[in-house]
Amino acid sequence: MLGRLNHVAIAVPDLEVAAERYRAVLGATVTEPQALPDHGVTVVFVEVANTKTELLEPLGEASPIAAFLEKNPAGGIHHMCYEVEDIIEARDALQVNGVRVLGDGEPKTGAHGKPVLFLHPKDFDGTLIELEQV
Ligand SMILES: CC[C@H](C(=O)O)C(=O)SCCNC(=O)CCNC(=O)[C@H](O)C(C)(C)COP(=O)(O)OP(=O)(O)OC[C@H]1O[C@@H](n2cnc3c(N)ncnc32)[C@H](O)[C@@H]1OP(=O)(O)O
Ligand SMILES: [Co+2]
């Protein structure tokens, strides 16, 4: 089911400060901020040879990461995103195995313009998993 690791996401209290730190201190290539109101976050991607790091901050009152940042005010690793060839096939197989797919179970369009789904962190040892169809 799983293809490449597409990105590891870090929730941050201040996206501009975090992005500049990756640029200035680590010499990294960082994309410009992308507001994703449907997802309640603003993101940038730190691009490295074999994967990406997504930095994200809350956008709007109902951000799904607000509670995470209340618990982790300095920020922290938020989710792992794996690529899948067929997100519906993957979702159906996971649900048959009792995995909780978050939201209404229908894929939404993610930051890369591809369909994404999220799997409950309690079903994977406390790790929120995102699937992105490539
Ligand atoms: C798609 C655009 C972009 C992209 O890459 O393309 C993104 O990745 S956007 C990313 C932001 N969107 C999401 O995260 C959507 C999925 N997330 C959710 O639906 C919520 O964050 C949820 C349900 C995972 C947690 O929501 P909330 O914290 O409000 O609920 P609870 O307090 O009830 O949490 C339940 C339980 O899970 C623990 N938790 C929460 N977040 C995480 C996490 N990121 N990693 C690990 N564990 C997490 C939380 O502490 C609770 O545990 P408990 O022991 O019961 O206290
Ligand atoms: Co993501």
UniProtKB/TrEMBL annotation:
Principal EC category: isomerase
Gene3D superfamilies associated with the record: 2,3-Dihydroxybiphenyl 1,2-Dioxygenase, domain 1 (3.10.180.10)
Listed EC numbers: 5.1.99.1
Domain of life: Bacteria
Reactions that this protein is recorded to catalyse: (R)-methylmalonyl-CoA = (S)-methylmalonyl-CoA
Key word Metal-binding present: yes
A biological process term (GO) from this entry: L-methylmalonyl-CoA metabolic process
An annotated Gene Ontology molecular function: methylmalonyl-CoA epimerase activity
Cross-referenced InterPro entries: Glyas_Bleomycin-R_OHBP_Dase, MeMalonyl-CoA_epimerase, MMCE/EMCE_epimerase, VOC_core
Domain VOC: 4-134
PANTHER family from the UniProt entry: METHYLMALONYL-COA EPIMERASE, METHYLMALONYL-COA EPIMERASE, MITOCHONDRIAL
Protein name as it appears in the record: methylmalonyl-CoA epimerase
Organism of this sequence: Oricola cellulosilytica
